[in-house]
Amino acid sequence: MRAARASENFPGSVHEAQELWCDTSRCHMWVDGLDRVLSVEGDWPRPGSTVRWQSNPAGRGHVTERVVAYEELGGLSTEVLDDSITGRQAVTFAPVEDGVAVELVLEYELLRRSLFTVVIDPLFIRRAMATSLATTLAHFGAELAERHSAGGP
Questions:
Q1: CA-wise closest residue to 8 among 122, 109, 149, 130
Q2: Distance (Å, rounded) from C-alpha 92 to C-alpha 103?
Q3: What is this structure's pTM?
Q4: Which CATH number applies to 2-150: 3.30.530.20, 3.40.50.80, 3.40.50.170, 3.40.50.720?
Q5: CB 91: neighbour CB atoms within 10 A?
Q6: What percent of the chain has pLDDT over 90?
Q7: Which of the pair, 148 or 17, is modelled with greater confidence?
Q8: CA distance 136 to 89
Q9: 45 prior amide bond cis, ω within 30
Q10: Rounded Cα gap, residues 2 and 113, in angstroms
Q11: How far apart, in Å, are the Cα atoms of 141 and each of 49, 68, 91, 116?
């Protein structure tokens, strides 16, 4: 599998970060390309639960994320499926001196492959995914900082 990743430190606690990340009613505010959540099934974010969302017109289409691992005050991993990839996404939260470190990793396989995939993936696709993950984290950090400075939800 190929991997794209992004990480950043933000003000706030691990608890605040994980609580906000798992709030499906607000994730459209930071997940790059997410237009709207279509459904949440099960006890999100517990293992086996699923969220389905629709991207904006230029995005990934319909996306399904099914939780495969969840650790309170640690993070969660989901199986991800959309129109072009299948994979596993993990977000982790760790305390740091002035806040929380958040890392987002997407390991993926392209559903449509060609002879050019070997060249196109590292030059364009992986770079675009890493940029999208970094954008997601930047927007998430802004929401977390706002929430943290306001003293809660």
A1: 130
A2: 5
A3: 0.89
A4: 3.30.530.20
A5: 23
A6: 73
A7: 17
A8: 13
A9: yes
A10: 13
A11: 25, 24, 13, 36
- Residue 119 identity (one-letter amino acid): V
CB-based burial, 122-131: b 16+ in 10 Å, e otherwise? eeebbeebbe
The residue type at 93: F
In the chain, where the domains are located: 2-150
Residues in the chain: 153
Cβ contacts of 92 within 8 Å, gap of 6 or more:
74, 75, 102, 103
Measured CA to CA, the distance from residue 140 to residue 79 in angstroms comes to: 21
Hunting for tokens 């987002």 — which residue is that? 104
DSSP letters, 13-42, are -HHHHHHHHT-TTTGGGTSTTEEEEEEEES
Is 60 exceeded by the pLDDT of residue 58?
yes
Q: What is the pLDDT of residue 119?
A: 56
C-beta neighbour count of 24 within 10 angstroms: 17
| Nearest to 107, CA basis, from 134, 87, 82, 80 | 87
Residue type, 55: S
pLDDT in tens, 80-107: 999 888 999 999 999 999 999 999 999 9
